[in-house]
Amino acid sequence: MITTRPPRKFCLLLTTGISLWGCASTSSTVVQAPEPTEFDLEATPTTSQAFRIAVEPRGQTEWTGDLPVVSPEGDRMAMADPERPGDVLIRSIPNNRLDDPMILGRVPGPIRFGRSVDDVGFAVMDGERVGRASWVGGTVEWFAEQNSSDLDLGPDDSIAFIQKGDLVVRTPSATLRLEDDTATWHGPRWQGPNGTLFCWRVRDGALDLVRFRTDVGDSAALRRTALPLRIAESGGSKATIATTSTFRQFDATAPGPARCVFWDPARQRVRLWEPPYPIFDFPPGVLAFVTDPNDPRFGMSVQSTVVRRVSLLTPSSGVPISGGLRLPCPIPNGEWLLFAPGDQQISVECAILQPLTDNES
Question: Which residue, 65, 227, 244, 259, has most beta carbons within 10 Å?
């Protein structure tokens, strides 16, 4: 039987390495999702797609419970060092294999890595500072060194993080800072290639998800782009925000649409918000959804312990990819890494999807 509440172990895995999310804005406008919700795409998706699937084992390694992150090229992986707690290892994964990986660098701890990556490196935080550790050697470039947290790496070398309760956004053209004494801010999250930023906000106990456009020149203009979506009227807290983390589309490949997939603690289900479309509810039992960066009409859905490739028009169906707990991560060339966590080791599989030709289907 599939339940709508994620198992505790699964929920911990999804939130490991991800800072608490949240955001704030002085805008008073709140967008309420209509009921029943509907979802539309600019391009009408087909309800099915014929393809063959090959799932290949690619090795395993010791792990400490922090889900690794993978470089955009799919050839390097950052993970917590199982032998030296607090350090982060950078390992080669040639051909997406863990059989005989080389150690390419080490980031000395105590330090945590975030879930966002770019071509240069991956987000790291040590409780005060936020920075980016290079895939080559692990050298850290620190962006802010006092009371900073929740770093997320964005397109075109943009970054966003929290400092002293403020949301700070740095783009190639401006440094923007938003303050709000009546709200708490957590975990900015870039989505899409054009500088769209989603954040969480708790104000007067209410929980909102807010979208910003960052192609602006000053903080006042950034504030005016705020589009809030009310998630819960009460009960908003850091603990509540932590439960909203689903396995984000993070690693690699070209960025997908400016959409945010999250776990709604009030409705007890995974939801997708892609403005200007109304919010979309996945069927009960779906615990996570990762958009296919090569075709945003499709994605990988985690339902209980089954990973399925699904169409957004038919998210309750789909083709099973793997049984047992697997966490999907897209990599180049239309392939997916499937992380299978165990008690002391984590295994990796590679799902290779090949669409059939008209003659084959």
Answer: 244
Domain residue ranges in the chain: 8-355
Specify the 3-state DSSP secondary structure of 279. Answer: coil
Q: Residue 203: pLDDT above 90?
A: no
* Residues facing residue 133 across a β-bridge: 122, 140
- The maximal CA–CA distance of the chain, rounded, in angstroms, is 63
Is the sign of the CA dihedral 36, 42, 46, 48 positive or negative? negative
The whole-angstrom separation of Cα 179 and Cα 220 is 11
Q: Which residues of 302-328 are buried (b: 16+ CB within 10 A; e: fewer)?
A: bbbebbbbbbbeebeebeebbeebbbb
* Cα 149 from Cα 127, distance rounded (Å): 7
Cα–Cα–Cα angle for 253, 256, 259, nearest 5°? Answer: 145
Q: Which CATH superfamily is domain 8-355 in?
A: YVTN repeat-like/Quinoprotein amine dehydrogenase (2.130.10.10)
Yes or no: say if 10 and 252 are a contact pair by the CB < 8 Å rule.
no
Averaged pLDDT for residues 50-63: 82
pLDDT-derived band at 252 (thresholds 50, 70, 90) equals very low
d(CA 361, CA 358): 5
pLDDT at 222: 95
- Taking the C-alpha atoms of residue 139 and residue 119, their distance in angstroms, rounded to an integer, is 14
The HSE-up count of residue 9 (CA atoms within 13 Å, CB side) is 10
Alpha helices in the chain (DSSP H): 8-15, 219-224, 238-242
Sheet-wide strand order for 286-291: 286-291, 298-303, 306-311, 319-322
Q: What band does 177 get if pLDDT is binned at 50, 70 and 90?
A: very high
